[in-house]
Amino acid sequence: MILSLQGCMAVGKTTVARYLEQHCQQVQVCFEDNAAVLAEIKRRGLNKNCYADYLEIQRLFLRNELRRGQKAKKYPHAVMDFGAEEIEFYTLNYPKSRGLEWEIKAIRQALALELAAVQACMPEHILFLDASESVLRARKTGDNTRSREFFAYYLNHLLPLKREWFREKKKATFLSTDGLTARQVGEKAKHWCEQYI
Length: 197
Prior knowledge:
Helices cover 57% and strands 12% of the residues. By secondary structure, it is an alpha/beta fold. The protein is built from nine helices and five strands; from the N terminus they run βαβααβαααβααβα. The protein has a five-stranded parallel β-sheet with strand order 2-3-1-4-5, sandwiched between helices. It has one domain (2-194): P-loop containing nucleotide triphosphate hydrolases (Rossmann fold).
């Protein structure tokens, strides 16, 4: 069974994943790893604001997620630090967030094979970690281990679409992390996982 952690940058997904890795031995935690894809995008000079390049970039990400998902399926219970649902959301919503007039139907057709393939890796349940804008900004400022250059854009343009997208998914549970310590969020996530294992 695949479970997935979702939410905005700086909400604490990776912190929760690390907590689960230490305190919930029944699950295999699969951390996000896009380094090879990002290196390939840079090597090829692809631009995500150019339609043809965007399709190629998303094809790379979708194939990477398929490999990740296939690996996760080998375990009885896996928790993804972002899973296939993230790349599906981003593929279909990033152009809209940028005000690009690319038809989602055309994107779906161009990437039909890859989008269909990642459906097999979709999580059975999603824990969407949420927080207010002020809390997200404070956490971003307090975390100097990552640059998060995309944070302001993500917060203002992608997060509203993401909340709406995942609220429509019956398999998504929302957890507000406002006012909770990292340990408290980790405990709540552990309890959520244990419902399904």
